[in-house]
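Dear support,

I submitted the protein below through the web form. The confirmation email said the job was done, but the results page showed an empty box. After a refresh the structure appeared. I'm attaching both so you can tell me whether what I see now is the final result or a partial one.
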Amino acid sequence: MNKVVHNDLSRKTIEFSQIDSNLLELLIEAKALFEDLDRYSSQVRALEKELQKVNACFPFKLKVKEEQESFVRPVLDKHTQWCVGVTMLGYTQQDIHFLSWEADENTKNFRLFLVVEEKECVLFDCAQSAGLKREFTSQVRAKKPLIETDMYTRLKYCAYLNGFIKSFKEHLRSCRMTIEMGALLK
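What the results page shows now:
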């Protein structure tokens, strides 16, 4: 009987040892993630500061994520009033996420925002095809400076920052080339 207790204690000691080891690894990963997220947040702050320094008041918005479209819902009165006399099958809703460089309504400074727009589309019944979809409305559901979002949100969107910077750079380059081409044509 003593042997069984001893084996049970050895097993528990091993289990606690594994828990301690896993806990230590978890703490190391959490610390590394926090440091990376802190470094990312510093990069966003620096990006905003540098763009403000050079007076980069050029609005730019990049779609970074689309949620799955909702199931088709029954047509509402506002839809039938919008397009009288046409057969509608229903409507769908979808959230679209953007990173946007635009003026802050409060401070008038340009900032990097996370914007979530809700798009509502109406489905029409068309004899020639399975149906036709048209955007009915699009409205901003949420808008907040990216740096002021919670850690989880910043972590979710940090993967899109480099793509945003590249696209913004290409947009500005394209605008500059358009101006230069216009000057050459005169």
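Response: this is the final, complete result; the empty box was a page-load delay. The two ends are 101 Å apart (CA to CA).
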